[in-house]
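>> received
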Amino acid sequence: MMISSAQFISDLGLKTYTTSTHSQWDLHSADLNRPGLQFVGYYEYFAYERPQVVGLVEMSYLESLSEDVLHERLDRFFSYPIPCVIVCRGIVPPDIMLELAQKHGVSVLGTDAQTTRFSVSAINYLSRCLAPRSTLHGVLLDVYGVGVLITGESGVGKSEAALELVKRGHQLVADDVVDVRKVNDLRLTGEAPETIRHFMEIRGIGIIDIKAMFGIGAVLLSKSIDLVIHLENWNEEKSYDRLGLTEDYTTIMDVKIPQLILPVRPGRNLAIIIEVAARNFSLKKMGYSAAKELDNRLNEMMAGIQK
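>> returned
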């Protein structure tokens, strides 16, 4: 995936010592490489396609080399198509490093952060940028700390339920279009496309700005998708779950997410039901299930009667 070099530098707060001949880097992994072995001369397994991170250890070794050897080692190092080199701990790169980097068109960047701390930040940043993405139709909110994705057919009342939840103090992430990222094999996050961020469409009113109307505390830039609530028009012939003993799941980008199907009909307060669903989900995550507790009590009672 192509990563903007300017965006990378800006988002991670890096200093620029030399500029690259490429405005974008083709990165396929969120991993970094510390080129200690390459500076010694070992190149058999050189991950040159990754950003190169130079810390105190690597720089101390380079400073111990004679000028001729240093020139030879760095010239070979920069001859590879390296995306960039980041020098940590506020260390100023030697002039010969900057000259050879400029010669080969490689960016040399700097940060005052410790090497390990910067590496963690950079890996997290690249993981977000390189995460597989998809787009879903729905509304994403933070309800009591639970990322709730509300789905359903157009006109079923998703935005109206979300508006009532915002009014009750919860936070809107995205309305109508949700950009989903697969952070890892078990976790998805969602956010709104930048052009429609904080906006909501209410039929009969039109477009409203949630941030302007309810304040900055009513919106959130991104949130994990923990629970999917699917709204559908009430079907009298369909049997809906009344106990909650069985777990239903839906799969989004190969990740299983717990799902509830809520039937919609006049008189149902969807906002309150969604709040209760979020709280009940949190209780289940902590190991408590009201349905199982009731089932255990009934079983104990039946066992007592049989005795």
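>> The CA atoms of residues 54 and 300 lie 65 Å apart.
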